[in-house]
Design a protein that fits this description.
- The structure holds 2 protein chains of 2 kinds.
- By secondary structure, chain A is an alpha+beta fold.
- Among the domains of chain A are: 50 residues, no CATH class; 103 residues, no CATH class.
- Chain A contains 7 helices and 8 strands, in the order αααααααββββββββ.
- In chain A, helix 1 packs parallel to helix 3 and helix 2 crosses helix 3.
- The relative contact order of chain A is 0.09.
- By secondary structure, chain B is mainly alpha-helical.
- Chain B folds into 2 domains: 100 residues, Rna Polymerase Sigma Factor, Chain: A; 74 residues, Winged helix-like DNA-binding domain superfamily/Winged helix DNA-binding domain (Arc Repressor Mutant, subunit A).
- Helix content of chain B is 71%, strand content 0%.
- Chain B has 8 helices and no strands.
- The longest helix of chain B is centred in the middle third of the chain and has 24 residues.
- Classes of the chains: A alpha+beta, B mainly alpha.
């Protein structure tokens, strides 16, 4: 057997896959005799073990992550976690039924009508279709929410200082920032969730200085990507 | 048609597939936090659409394609974000990204990073089976099922990937 032929089978040896019955003996014989193929096998094995260590290592947090994912699924799918076909069928919106039944011509006419109304409004009237940034509302315990002007951009940042850590918690349609400990969520790392996302980010109140009394802030947060949520405005007065 | 996801089924699917999926994402992205995030998003997407899967045995391949799409979405969003100026976030400073591998041995860590960088540059056709192979030492049979190709093709692609990798690393050496 030539080295160029053995090369292919060496890859199988590295991965512990069975060699073809006809060539197994000759491959082993060649590797034991040829020093360069033996060296190649050693090199590939060492690279494979390095890669398996880096990619396949089971982190200590893997079971925790698995539990969090399963938990997230049932949280987001409702308390029972059931989403049966019957339930989905019953939940089909009337407009979806209409979509299915409308003939294409009627659809075209409807689309033209919508375009002529909204499109012209957009071009003539300016930006009424564009969502404007809303003011932040601060929910104070025992009092109604008060509107507030957006703060200066200089304050819109998460600071690494740890003296007044807060969590951001998504509650229904808004976000709350709460002092850590109120909800009993463990500190240390982000809890990876898709919808009800909790941040264990230490956020420093640069104005107040020092630990904050327990209270919640209603925040307006926008999704930047799968990882980041960005405060649209800083909640402190 | 697949059964409706119940608690036990979901837990089993997550436990059986999280390992290799995490390894595969580790090979594709550097940031371990992002890896976990993408893992979670892919698994949740796959389980939510489980009723559309005709055979539960096809779940790993189905999950792989969803994971690819999730990663693609993320990269596209990242590209879009580059065009917009956002208020700077200091999250990296709050929680510095830990290396994906053991950093106690800096030499080993450096070599691993060099190896992973070279793998990321491989053509996708060759890169994917190699990453899956080392994600949790998956046998060729399972890699073939995930990628939807024949076992023989997996064998050839891994062999070619290693040969190309050797060449790349040789070129990189001073």
């Amino acid at each position: 057997m030539k080295c160029s032929e053995a090369d292919r089978w060496i890859s199988l040896l590295v991965d512990g896959e069975p060699l073809p019955a006809g060539s197994a003996h000759s491959v082993h014989e060649h590797v034991s005799e040829c020093s360069s193929c033996r060296e190649l096998l050693r090199l590939e094995k060492s690279r494979a073990s390095l890669l398996s260590g880096a990619l396949g290592a089971e982190g200590s947090d893997e079971s925790r992550l698995a539990a969090a994912i399963a938990g997230e699924f049932f949280t987001s799918e409702g308390p029972s976690g059931e989403h049966s076909r019957e339930h989905r069928a019953a939940a089909v919106r009337p407009w979806k039924l209409l979509v299915r039944r409308l003939p294409p011509l009627a659809w075209t006419a409807a689309a033209l009508l919508v375009f002529s109304v909204t499109g012209s409004g957009f071009w003539w009237g300016g930006s009424f279709l564009r969502p404007g940034a809303r003011n932040v509302e601060i929910a104070r315990p025992g009092g109604p929410a008060a509107p507030m002007e957006p703060a200066s951009p200089a304050k819109q940042e998460f600071s690494p200082a740890a003296e007044s850590p807060f969590q951001l918690r998504y509650v229904e349609d808004s976000w709350e920032m709460m002092p850590v400990g109120d909800q009993g969520v463990p500190m240390g790392r982000k809890v990876h969730r898709t919808r009800s996302r909790v941040f264990d980010l230490p956020i420093k109140n640069q104005d107040a200085g020092g630990p904050q009394p327990p209270r919640s802030w209603m925040l307006e947060v926008e999704r930047v990507d799968t990882r980041y949520y960005q405060l649209k405005s800083w909640p402190y007065e | 048609m697949s059964p409706e996801p119940n608690r036990q089924l979901v837990s089993t699917l997550v436990e059986e597939n999280l390992g290799w999926l995490r390894g595969w994402f580790r090979g594709r992205v550097k940031d371990p936090d992002l890896t976990d995030e993408l893992c979670q998003e892919s698994l949740l997407r796959a389980i939510r659409r489980l009723s559309g899967l005709r055979d539960l045995a096809l779940f790993p391949g189905w999950l792989y394609r969803i994971a690819e799409n999730t990663l693609r979405d993320h990269l596209r969003a990242k590209l879009r974000r580059k065009k917009v100026v956002f208020t700077p976030l200091l999250e990296e400073e709050v929680q510095p990204a830990a290396p994906a591998f053991d950093s106690r041995d800096p030499e080993k860590a450096e070599e691993t990073e060099r190896l992973l960088s070279a793998i990321r540059e491989l053509p996708p056709k060759l890169r994917e089976p190699l990453l899956l192979r080392h994600s949790r030492d998956l046998p060729y049979r399972e890699i073939a099922a995930i990628l939807g190709i024949r076992e023989n093709a997996v064998q050839v692609r891994i062999f070619r990937a290693r040969r190309l990798l050797r060449q790349k690393l040789k070129d990189l050496q001073p």
